[in-house]
Structure formats: structure tokens, C-alpha cells
Amino acid sequence: MEDKMNIHIDEKNTFDNALKTGISLFLGSGFSVLSKDKQGKTLPCGYELLEELKEQFPKIKSFNDLSKASTMLERSIEKDKFKQYLTNRFAIDTYDNLYKNMFRINIKNIFSTNIDDLIFKIWTNNNQSQQHINNTLNRGESNDPLAINYFPVHGCVLNSDREYIFSNIKIASAYLSQNGSWESLKLTVSNEPILFWGWSFNDSDIIEAIYSNRGKMVDDNIKKWIVLCNPEEPEIEFYRSLNFSIIIADTKQMLEYLGEISLVNYEKAKNKNEIPLQYQVPLSANEPSYPVETFFTGDIPRWSYIYSDQIVKTHHYKKITDLIYSKKNIIVIGIPASGKTTLMRQLASNITSEKQKHILYAPTTEEIDKYCKLVENEKVMLFVDDCLSDYNALVQLTKKNNIQVIGFERDHRYESIAYQLIKNNLEFELYDVSEINEQDITKIIDSIPREIYSGKIVEIKDKTIFETIRKHTKVSVMEDRFENILNDLCKQNENNENIAELFLMISYVHSCGVPVSYDIIYSYLEEHDYNVVYDKIKNIGKLITDCYTKDFNFLGDISLDDQNYYKCRTRYLAELIIRKVPKYKLMRLMLNKFVERVPPFKICRYDIFKRSAFDADIVTKYFTKYEEGIEFYQKCLYIENSAFMYQQIALYASRKLKYNDAFRWIDKAKNFKKSNIFSIRNTHAIILFYANINKEDEDGSVVTTLHQSLEILKDCYENDLRRGFHALKFGEFILKFYERYGYDEVEKYVETAKEWLDIEIKSKSNGNTSIKKMRQIKKELEKNIILPNS
Asked: Rounded to an integer, what distance in angstroms lies between the CA atom of residue 634 and that of residue 628?
């Protein structure tokens, strides 16, 4: 980010917050360039000092490296003269008044490779800050909250009786030793905000020594910055590879920046109301511990894993942290299993703020009413998982000026509702975490416990956390194991009181985004004996244990309004199970029983459930006979008679190539309560197109109909706020139309399609997955149609 002084600061909001809440400094020679010694000479940096030393000590005239020259002099007969020269040269007499801007920031510790006494001179004349400098060479570390511990890791001219550590070899070896200054530095660089200031690329071996000798610890400190003056690209890339955020400025600009920024005293908010535990971020000490290996084999992101610091923070963590410190509302989206919940918990547990931090899961408007009454006007940072499960609840939250919302949602759900956010002028930052980068992948592979690591790095097509772990572990991930369990349960189903059927039903309901209550199980089994129901639920876990000598905790109970609910580990796992049912007949049996026996009022959050429960994708897969699928949908209409249901039936009919039926059903959807729902008109265009694209055009009617489908999509795009999907389909259809009938038929559409795709690629309404598809369609339009016909 650029400010008015042309300083570039990565993660500027996070940096400004660290200046308020507390930051340590690690100073190099470039920090002291605005000060002078008693001869009135500006303090030298590395190259200038080397040239001065060559004049004083002719024996090193051939040396081009300061570290090697220093080592030579330290071992020569002139070592005392060398030390005295350094002591005199780095004793500060005057300094620029800009250094007083240091008093404005909250400094925790200062580490320095400089042997000068500049910091002591600055604070000697300090009448602005209550803090004072504690020289650890004299007194050791201080626990006084007003003391800034100063660690002169090279030594200091104020302690000239001690050795100066002036060569890189000594610095690197000192870091690996148990020296107190370096031990404190190790802890600071690992966990706390720190600013490296005054370093050059020639000093990089020192920093590399610090960050490359830390055993198997995960370097997840995202709050570390380095100030670089006029760097070249290789220097920037090098420090970014060490997880640094980059500040491009010289020392004068940096000090001016400290004088310009607005810094408010940091004071932790005190909670006036008793907030229920379910809304609080758990303390690490209160959480049961689980072996971290189970996270890598597919377990849910438990708090104990988060607090173990063994789960990698991807580059998204740093970016979202900076957005949070901008104080704006944020919606984080991503594909299923992209690590959204893990990321949310990492942020909630680690981010520092004067605000209270709370968590909500798929809140309703009623729950938000209750929550807002609890927090009143208290400033709150609120993390919301499944934040768009109830759109009105999110709107209600964003209207509260004292609540900063950091929401997490699947990209598909976001795209389906983004138009409402835009229509209602909700202000928020959008961030997509669907893919990770190469550095993330490397860190994740390095963090996999050795016992389960495959031992070989392989290429990953889908750059996601899930695929990275899946491809690099010896044991199968949870998805694969449950697929095997389902196969075994299906084989044993008749002898195990329909346990596989119950297993499927629970997975089905949870795949629709809601838990399963005892009431649902009673209704489904048509069983009114509580003990029998309990036994059947327990038998699921028992069968899994019997088959695999390990309880995978498929079911986990939660409490909602005194009603017991069950759900499998994650929604994504439930979706994978439902996609891979080996016996289609069993799946059809379960679905039919469910719609026959379970009334909507018994389903927790039916509004969420119905979005996925009757989807044409699942019916198309498992109801291979068209008549059976229609019979199933007829039952569904008894419980959900809506335009959406007619739309799904139309899609099912079209996929079974029953186009006459598909048109009949989509007409019912279009005419339902005379609604003009653009998603239904989009479906109409899709059915119209696919019903005709492969037909022979004997009288021109086929081409006319294909044009009609494109005109419907044009109307949808021009009049609907959900434009991304319309633009994508429009581009896809033009490619197919061109391939079949040539340029003349699509000429009038091509530039429009390209223009729309350009707009949607930049739009806030679309996630990265959709944008990738749009870029691909645009590329094909240019390559296959525009260039050959230009």
C-alpha cells in the first residue's frame, strides 16, 4: 500500500495496529544514518565503514567484505586499536530530531546489531514517553512494563569492556548459542510483531541464520516487517520467501511516517455483560487435547489443533489480518474444504484487539436479536461461520456500528446471494481463500507429522489444503476411509438393522447444512421407543469401530434449545459420502423414506436444508430410471410446492433428455405465482439450448430457437443483479453455437460476451473459482472465434 510520502507498506493496517499494541525492533546500521559522531561525521554503513577501515588498517586493503575484514583485524596484533577505533567512531554526539518520533510508538524490545549508543542518547532527552531503556548487558532483562529491554547483540560502546561481535560468523554462531539476548530474539521473531530496520541485502545471511535454524517449528509469525531502501526485485523476493512483509522506505521517510500516523492508546475493552460460552473464543487451557495427526487425516479443526501452533497459517491469514485491522466488515469465501473454519479459528484465537472477540455459527435473525442485546454498545469483533445462512441476520449485524463482522461462507452460496448485498449497499471487503500458493503448499508438507508423511513430494493439480494433505500422507484421509466404511455397512446392512440406511440419512441431512435431531430419527424410523433409537445410533459408531479398530467419532452431539442433535464430522465429509454411495437402490430407498416420513417442521433450519435437499444433481445420479425420479419429485412437491422445486424437476427431466417434460416443468416454475425469477429463466434458456444444439436444422427453426435461448440470457444479464452465471453461460453457449453453425450465427454476440466476461471478472459478486472459469471462456472466445475471424 502507498501512502502520501510514497512509502510502500505491506499489510499496512496490521503494521499500524502493531505500532499501537506493541512491536519489537531489530536495528541494523541503516537505522543510525541520521546521527553523527563527536567529529561531526555521519555514522557509516557497511561499505563506508569498510573503506574507512582500509585507510586506518592497510593490511585489509585487498578485502571486499566487511565481515571477513573484521575477523582478520580481531585476530591480529592491532585488535585493540581496531576496537578503540570502533568505540570512538560509534559514540553518538548529535542526531536528527525525527528520531523523537520513536516515542510515539509502543516498543516492547529493541535488538540491535549496531554498537552505537544512539538509542540511549534519544531516550536520555525523552520527556514525551514514560518508557525507559534497560540495557540488558548491565542489568539483564527487566519485567518492568515501562522498560524497553535493549539487546545490543554485537555489543555496545557503553560497554566497551566487553567484546564486540562484529563478524557474521560470530553473529550466526551466537544465535545458535544459549546467549540471553539471542534467546529472547528467538522467542520474539517466532511469536511477536517485529520490525527489521536498517538492514541491507548484504546482511541477509544474518537474518537467514535466524529463520533457518528453528528445528521443525512452523514459521507462522505473520507480523514481521523489514524496511528496505531502494531494493531490487531479487531482494524483495528473498525476504518474502522468509515470510516478511516489505516496507520500502529510507530511514528519514520511516521516521516521518511514525510522526504522521494516528496512534490511539491501546486499552483492552472490559466486558460489561456476561457473554454465553458458546459465543466466546475458548481459552487454550480449557480445551481437551487431541493428537495433531488426526487433523491431517481429516478431523474437524478443533481448538486444540489451533492452539498447538502446528497447523500452518497460509498467506491468506496475513492478508485477512490486515483487512481486519482496517476495521471494515469482511466476507471470506472459498470452495468446500478450503480451510475456512480453520482460518476463522486461527484468526479468532491469535489476533490482538481492544475489542471483545466472539464467534457465531450460522446465526438466525432471532439469535442476532438476542446477541445484540447482550453486547449492547460494546465494541466487538465478531467471527461468523456460514454467515449467509440467513441473509437478514447478516444485514442486521452490519447495521451495528459497534460490531465488526468477519464472515465466512462457501463461494457458491455467496455468489447466489451477492446481488442482495450489492442491492442493499452493504459495505464489506471480499476475500477468496479457495487456492493456496506454492509457499503455503511447501509449509503444509513440511508440517505433516513424520509418522504419516508419504516421504515424497508430488504435483498437485488442485491447489487446496485438502488436496495437499491428501497427496502427502501415508494413511488415507477421512473421506477415503468413510467410503470404505460405507461399502462394508452396505454389505452388512440386512444383518445390522438397516444401520447403513441410518448412516446415509444422517449424512444426507448434514450434507444439506443442518444437523439431525432425535425427532428426525424417530420420524424416519417410525420408532417411538427412545431406547431403540439410542441403540441404533450407537450401533453406527460400533460398526465403524468393529470394522476399523478405531472410533472415528462419526457422530458428535451438540445442544440446541434442549434438543439433542447429531451430525457427522464436517459438511464436506457428508457431501463426499453422499456422492459415493455404492448401492444406488439403498440411496433411493433412503430418499423416498425421508420425504414420506419426515415433516419439514422437524428439520432444524429447514430454510437452509431445502437449498440442497432436492437438488437435481443428486436425483439425476441415483434415480437412473426417469419414472422413479419423477415419482420421488411428486412426493417432494407435497412438502415444498415452489418455483424452485419445479425448476429442479425441469433440470432432472432435461438431463434425462425428456425435453418436452422439461419445458412443461420449467413453464410451471415460470408461472408459479407469476414470479419473474431470473434463475428460472436462465434454466429455461439452458434447457432450450441443449434441447436443440444437436438437432438437424432442416427448416431454420433450430437456429432460431438457439438464438432465442441466447436472447433470454441477454435479458437475464441486463435485468438481473446475479450477472456472473448468466455471462458464463452466455459465453459457453456462443462457443458451442459457433462450433456447430459457424461465425455468421454468433457474430453479433461475441463482443458482448467478451465485454460481459471482462466486467464479471472484476466484479465483487463472483468468487475466484467462477472467475477462473470466466477467464477460460474468454480465452477460448478470443482464440477460437475472435482471432480467426478478425
From this structure: 10
Parent domain of 54: 44-89
pLDDT attached to residue 136: 83
Phi–psi pair at 675, nearest 5 degrees: -80, 145
pLDDT of residue 409: 93
In this model, does residue 559 exceed pLDDT 50?
Answer: no
- Is it the case that residue 148 has pLDDT exceeding 80? yes
Residues 771, 777, 783: CA angle, nearest 5 degrees: 135
CA–CA separation, 670 and 304 (whole Å): 50
What contacts 303, CB < 8 A, 6 or more positions away?
A: 282, 284, 287, 345, 349
The tens digit of pLDDT for each residue in 678-696 reads: 889 899 999 999 999 988 8
pLDDT value for 299? 74
Same domain, 232 and 119: yes
At what angle are helices 643-655 and 678-692 packed, to 10 degrees? Answer: 10
Burial class (CB in 10 A: 0-12, 13-18, 19+), 255: buried
End position of a domain, from candidates 425, 441, 457: 441
Q: Is 265 exposed, middle or buried (0-12, 13-18, 19+ CB in 10 A)?
A: exposed
Q: Can you tell me the distance from the alpha carbon of 607 to that of 598, in angstroms, rounded to the nearest whole number?
A: 15
Contact (CB, 8 A) for 670 and 684: yes
What is d(CA 428, CA 489) in angstroms, rounded to the nearest whole number? 46
* Amino acid in the structure at residue 548: Y
**Chain Cα centroid distance, residue 390:** 22
* pLDDT tens per residue across span 332-381: 999 888 889 999 999 999 898 888 899 998 888 888 888 988 888 899 99
Query: What's the pTM?
Result: 0.79
The predicted structure's pLDDT at residue 525: 83
Last residue within a domain, chosen from 613, 633, 654? 613
CA distance 676 to 669: 9
**Residue-averaged pLDDT of the chain:** 83
- Regarding whether 390 and 501 lie in a shared domain, the answer is no
| Count of CA atoms in the C-beta half-sphere (13 A) of 499 | 24
Q: Closest Cα to residue 204, out of 272, 113, 318, 303? A: 113
- DSSP letters, 16-62, are HHHHHH-EEEEE-GGGGTTEEETTSPBPP-HHHHHHHHHHH-GGGTT
Q: What percent of the chain has pLDDT over 90?
A: 38
The CA-CA-CA angle for residues 35, 40, 45, to 5°, reads: 50
- Give the contacts of 480 (CB within 8 A, at least 6 positions apart): none
- 418, 287: one domain: yes
Check pLDDT > 80 for residue 14. Answer: yes
Q: Nearest Cα to 620, choosing from 658, 578, 669, 656?
A: 656
In the sheet with 224-228, reading across from the earlier edge strand, the strands are: 8-9, 245-248, 224-228, 194-197, 23-27, 107-112, 147-152, 132-135
The predicted structure's pLDDT at residue 179: 53
> Average pLDDT for residues 193-220, to the nearest whole number?
68
643 domain residue, yes or no: no
Residue 222 near residue 185, CB atoms below 8 Å? no
Q: Answer yes or no: do 413 and 334 share one domain.
A: yes
Q: By the 8 A CB rule, do 321 and 222 touch?
A: yes
Contact 474, 453 (CB under 8 A): yes
- 3-class DSSP state of 181: helix
Instruction: Please count the structural domains in the chain.
Output: 4
Is the predicted pLDDT of residue 255 greater than 90, yes or no? Answer: yes
Confirm if 567 and 510 have CB atoms less than 8 A apart: yes
Within-domain flag for 49? yes
606-613 vs 499-511: helix axis angle to the nearest 10?
100
Q: Tell me how far apart the alpha carbons of residues 653 and 383 are, in angstroms, rounded to a whole number.
A: 41
Cell of 164: 564486540
Residue 165 φ/ψ region, left for φ over 0, alpha for ψ in the -120 to 50 degree band, beta for the rest:
beta
656-665 tens-digit pLDDT: 999 999 999 9
